[in-house]
Design goal:
Keywords: Protease inhibitor, Serine protease inhibitor. InterPro entries: Serpin_CS (IPR023795), Serpin_dom (IPR023796), Serpin_fam (IPR000215), Serpin_sf (IPR036186), Serpin_sf_1 (IPR042178), Serpin_sf_2 (IPR042185). Belongs to the serpin family. By secondary structure, this protein is of the alpha+beta class. It contains seven helices and 14 strands. The strands form two sheets. Strands 4, 5, 6, 7, 8, 11, 12, 13 and 14 form a nine-stranded mixed beta sheet that branches. A five-stranded mixed beta sheet has the order 2-1-3-10-9. The N and C termini lie far apart (50 Å). The C terminus is likely disordered.
């Protein structure tokens, strides 16, 4: 807990309780979240550990026979696929479980936000997206005119748009040039409060926005990263500190975390739920977009940083943060 910035379990529990309450409405609509701790099948697990994991932290503990590695991998992958409606598959690789495995942690997340004010798919058209290396590709560019929270500073544009989920927001930081994102990320590393300080400066502004429809998939094996953060003992069978999850009279002495894996799938489109009756990017189906004089434009046609957050009890929780660099290379063309 010290490595994660928490001095004691009471503080961690208080923080997590507030966060759990804040994402409840999101989980009822736009967010699919599955978590599970798998432990090697044994009768030595303390029942209170299983109960507390579920009731306090929302993570179920399941016993599984790791002595059959292939079957265990297949079983867990099927469970994740079912829990995410097949949006996330194959979270484990064949070699992730061995006969010596005692514990693994799995986390899979799918988010498809529904806007408070949807985009009209009839206005969506293929437009240029400029990559960091100078390449240009074509992306489905959504657009709408609305009054949105906006500010600009240091050559960056900051824009926030509300989701239909209670107090859920997408904030985008758009650099001035396609090559400006790395510099922004360095600035954010130097000053983690840089975004929040600019969000406080935002004001409602009539805007014409252009935002690409996009999907982002993230696949992380946290095992190595956690050890780089200094969280190493939990992976050692001789000094993991996990003996408390075993019964006092347990004959099992060596117990440790072997693997922690996560897959995240984020989708941003016009509605958050596909409701198209025809091809949304057909040129012949597009009405003309009304044009107002002196309305500033926010054109996300280059790499940008994004943050999906929740405001709850005067606290802003960053649920997802990421960057969009553009579509995959195979559909990229030269200018």
């Amino acid at each position: 807990m010290t490595s994660l910035g928490f001095g004691d379990e009471i503080k961690l529990n208080s923080c997590y309780t507030r966060l759990k309450e804040s994402i409840k409405t999101m989980a009822e609509s736009d967010l699919t979240l599955v978590n599970r701790i798998y432990v090697n099948y044994t009768n030595d697990i303390e029942p209170s550990f299983i109960t507390n994991s579920t009731e306090k932290w929302g993570v179920q503990v399941e016993k599984i026979a790791f002595i059959y590695p292939k079957a265990a991998v297949s079983y867990i992958n099927r469970w994740v696929g079912t829990g995410t409606y097949k949006r996330i598959m194959d979270i484990l690789d064949p070699g992730d479980i061995t006969k010596e495995t005692t514990m693994i942690i799995i986390n899979a997340v799918h988010f498809k936000g529904t806007w408070e004010s949807p985009f009209d798919f009839r206005f969506t058209k293929l437009s240029k997206f400029r990559h960091i290396d100078g390449r240009i590709s074509r992306v489905p560019m959504m657009t709408r005119i609305d009054s949105l929270s906006y500010t600009a500073a240091d050559g960056y544009q900051f824009l926030s748009m509300k989701f239909a989920s209670w107090r859920a927001t997408l904030t985008i930081v758009l650099p001035k040039t396609p090559q400006g994102l790395p510099e922004f990320l360095e600035k954010l590393e130097e000053d983690p409060s840089y975004i929040s300080s600019n969000i406080k400066r935002m004001s409602m502004t009539p805007m014409r926005i252009f935002l690409p429809r996009f999907k982002i998939k993230s696949y992380v094996d946290w095992t190595g990263f956690l050890q780089e953060l200094g969280i190493t003992e939990i992976f050692s069978k001789t000094s993991s500190g996990l003996s408390a999850i075993l019964k006092n009279d347990s004959g099992t002495k060596q117990f440790a975390l072997n693997k922690a894996k996560q897959k995240v799938f984020i989708q941003i489109d016009e509605m958050g739920v596909a409701r198209f009756t025809r091809d949304p990017i057909r040129q012949d189906s597009q009405p003309k977009i009304p044009r107002f004089l002196d309305v500033p434009e926010f054109v996300a046609d280059r790499p940008f940083y994004f943050q999906i957050s929740l405001d709850f009890e005067s606290t802003r929780y960053e649920i997802f943060t990421g960057v969009y660099y553009g579509p995959e290379p195979e559909i990229v063309s030269k200018p």
